Amino acid sequence: MKEEDKTCSLGAAAKMAGIPGYMLRQWCDRYLHHIKRIKIGEFQFQRRFTGQDIELIKRIKEYRRKGFTVGAAVTQARQDLDGGKE
Fold first, then answer.
1. Percentage of residues in the chain with pLDDT exceeding 90?
2. Alpha helix locations (H) across 1-86?
3. Which of 32, 33, 84, 85 is deepest in the core (most CB within 10 A)?
4. What is the pTM of this model?
């Protein structure tokens, strides 16, 4: 398995990013629709986070600390990672 193919659970991602799991779950439901979900049961799914997803979450957290709304923090963090900010 290649390094970029490795993923982690919501709990592990939240711990790496330094935010509570419930907050990460809310961000995923409202703003981070690209996060992959895998089926683990008939009606159950589990979110899987890549290294790039975790970097995005860390940046969102930093912008929130600076006073940005969640929506604005997500937008700015995405621009940072896409090279939109110089």
1. 76
2. 10-17, 21-30, 51-65, 70-82
3. 32
4. 0.84
